Amino acid sequence: MARWRCSICSYTYDETLGEPQTNTPSGTSFEDLPADWKCPVCQAGKSAFISIPDADSTPGRTVSEVLIDQLTTFGITDFFGVPGTSSLGIIDAIRKNPSARFILFRHEENAAMAASAYNKLTGRIAVCVTIAGPGATNLATGLYDAKEDRASVLSLNGQVEMQYAGPGGFQEIDQDAFFRPVTVYNNTISDKKMALKILTLALRYAVVRSGVAQISVPNDIQKEILDVSLSMPQGFFPSLHIAPDDDTLDRAAAMLDLAERPVILAGWGAYPSAGLVLSFAKAIDAPVVSTFRAKGILPDGHPFYAGVLGTVGSIQTREMVEQSDLLITLGVGFSKMTRVPEGIPILQVDRDPLQLGRGNRSLPVYGDVGMVIEQLIPKVRQRGKATAQKRVRAVIEPWDAQREKEADSVATPIRPPYIMKVLSDVIPEDAIISIDVGENGWWFGRNFRMKKQRFVMSGYLATMGFGLPGAIAAKLAYPDRCVFCITGDGGFAMAMADFVTAVKYELPIVVIVLNNHQLGMIRVEQKVENYENFATDLKNPDFALYAKACYGDGKRVSEPEDLSRAVRWAIQQKRPVIIDVDTDPNRF
After folding, report:
1. N or C: which end of the chain has fewer CB within 10 A?
2. Pick from 128, 139, 52, 137: nearest CA to 90
3. pLDDT in tens, 6-59
């Protein structure tokens, strides 16, 4: 008898056992189930199920092979990293598995940042794979990015053989201690019989607690033969849907009914529920503003969207929020860069209870943004004359005029506001954009006009070098969509070795380098704090020539009238391209 896994929730239907919840008797084959049979956990149809190979029918499998087989059974198929002595068993198991895909990066930090970006964009897990010691330590920055932005990532690392562990071991560190601060689950497989249990626990923690799970596998244990009957994996993952109680919903609805000037602040936690956020805004007649990470939840120019709140947003947006009599925060992390005013009444919705209770006049609502909104809309009163769109226009019209004035189309070096204006016009509506940290990210947040694009960034860690690996992850996840990396010369130089990775795997991404020959953000910060400018000037290569040296392609742009043409050309290429844009480090 066979087993079948639901690709949505990982529930397993075992033909031997049947399914009591659906009154399916034992011995019923999956093919004989009725056409309208549903998964008893998530209600997915039969088409969502895939056959699970019978592990016991393949004798002589190693621990590594069993681990990789189990990961692919759970639908985790992408592995990013660098092979080496202490991970050879794991790497070979990936090679043998037809469902697994290994992407060789040139630096482990980029592999980890790509895995973080992959989860932020797709909700699916990618696995980092590297060796003990220096390979593991190189993962740290990318894994910390995942930790801070609540991205689920599995780090599966080699470790030296058990008998060589300890002080003085070659390429050996205490990986459990090293990874402890960054992980929600962290363990070493020291007994092969525990391998699948540890793996399943790691995945549960990564998914349920939205974070990094790390497993170290000693080199000798990777190669040992595992009798799977002695180490069966635990079952499927639990449902993560959270809904508040009726009393809390009634109190929230009463709070909404009393508000005359409500404003919705949508955060990253609201992004998957964009359609419901708009329906909610219409129901309570409230403008929508967003955090930087949630930019694009509604398109720029939408009659209900009043822009970004925070350091990249407008004064008018901030004034509208501060003058509201109720701020509804939906999945908002309250970053200091957003500067959410906490002195006004707040209706706060979040699925993380530790985030709840901001301000001294807040009503915390524990639940998923989408589920809460769905249950609130029927409870709120019908508004009288609609005012939200008028309030939005009062914010957006002067802000648009200001940004248009800044976008000087003849100034050289090319002004960043003009670069963002051109990119807003040229980048396709269904594109995915990975942005770096620094001046380039500031200009993107402030001046880029989102349509229906998606973008990914390093949020709370705000690490330079994220843009390129984020774009690689985006193209791997969505091969049929245009992918852009918007980066600065400082951030790109930190990650540029992996441009050849995009070439190697034929990933036609477009990298826009805002080349101002400065660590521009640091220069501004020095000026703000009355320091002399020091140690921010950069000596850069010709990034367009570098692209060609990597067997990609590139153009250098110095004149404003050439920029649009160069970007349109780059989109048509079948290989990775760098557009090296000569720009100005002066903000205005």
Report:
1. C
2. 128
3. 877 778 888 888 888 778 888 899 999 999 888 888 788 888 888 876 644 445
